[in-house]
Design goal:
CATH architecture of the largest domain: 3-Layer(aba) Sandwich
Radius of gyration: 29 Å
Structural class: alpha/beta
CATH superfamily of the largest domain: P-loop containing nucleotide triphosphate hydrolases
Helix content: 40-55%
Number of domains: 4
Strand content: 5-15%
Strand order of the largest sheet: 5-8-11-4-12
CATH topology of the largest domain: Rossmann fold
Shape: flat
Distance between the termini: 73 Å
CATH class of the largest domain: Alpha Beta
Number of helices: 19
Largest sheet: 5 strands, parallel
Amino acid sequence: MLRLAIEGQGHTVIEARDQPDAVRTMQQSRPSLVLTDLRLPEGDGFGVLRAAKELDPQLPVIVMTAYGSIQDAVAAMKEGALDFLAKPVDPDHLLLMVERALAQRRLLTEYILLKEELATRRGAPLIIGEAPSLKNVISALQRAAGTDATVLLEGESGTGKELFARALHALSERSDGPFVAINCAAIPDNLLETELFGHEKGAFTGAVARKPGKFELAHRGTLFLDEIGDLPIGLQAKILRALEERRFERVGGTSSLQVDVRIVAATNKGLRMAVAAKQFREDLYFRLSVFPITIPPLRERKDDIPILARHFVERFCRDLNKKVATLAPGAIEELQRYGWPGNVRELQNCMERSVILADTDTIHARHLNLALHAPLQPVEAPNPWTSFDFSGSLADVGRRAQLEAERRKITQTLQETAGNKMRAAETLGVSYKAFLMKMRECGIE
């Protein structure tokens, strides 16, 4: 009767017959709410309550009890139960309590996300432009939004990959769920795993309380993994498992957690080249690039530059309480001649600076200061072969060249792994014993 009443309100109900069954079910399905009787065929509601709080301290639990055992219900609330129902249960009262519990759960998740992102989120930005290449990207986003396929956004730095990821989320059926973003390049390697998967209390020094990770916070929503190409090689296997099974363990935890998330990844690096160089797992690359979308750089959308520039000028004039300025023809020509290595982000910064510098209601080319930001001319790299020993036969030269290349690669890998020989061997795809032999052969201490 309770299941039918709750399902009638559009919720999904998973039943368990006793405490052991309930514990297994909670670990596998990660419910949003637990409703339990205090008396069960095996175990009791107190055991279910403790298991729920062990799984997630914020998981709301409602207990049911006979009218004569209200003191038990009060004891359960002292242990963390949200509320209690006296039997016989009034279905209308139950449904009201369920909706209130779920609303509190949603508010808590939104509070955690907003607290972390308030400094960077100033509202959902618009996708502005009329270039055919941009329209192709928007069309691809619309097609991908109708599925739960993993999307890989590729493009140079500053092209707006997070903007497109947010647009994809807004167009999808998960738009009512959370959008959780994490920059894999901005967090130290030793902290990234806990940021992604969370940690248990006491998992390491300083872990004074359990912390949910980004995968948990994105439950029933979208997880955006920015700069996925900078993901440490040792963490890639765990990410792969989480992508394939939507299952993971918190750092320091033993129970496996199941989540329902849609993955969107982004990179400004060539992942194919990283795979060829053994710096990125091939199986993870194929798992991420189910639906790849390439975002064009600004220099390939020159007709969009004046449109974007005017949009930024209007915005910054409003922010600075200045009269909306116009762009002089010379300024527009200068904007379209420039190469924009920083893409839309660089253009936005340029227009903000121009609005501040403009002493009239017209922005001229002199206000742009683009000459100060022209890309530096590349410095010719030294030729590594000028001091190479080419004496002897072709076979002798080949052996010396191979040995020198291996020596440089091993040295570079040891630097990247902070001298950890085991990790360096794993990165290079050789056994630890073979790695030590190769170090001796190359004369590396």
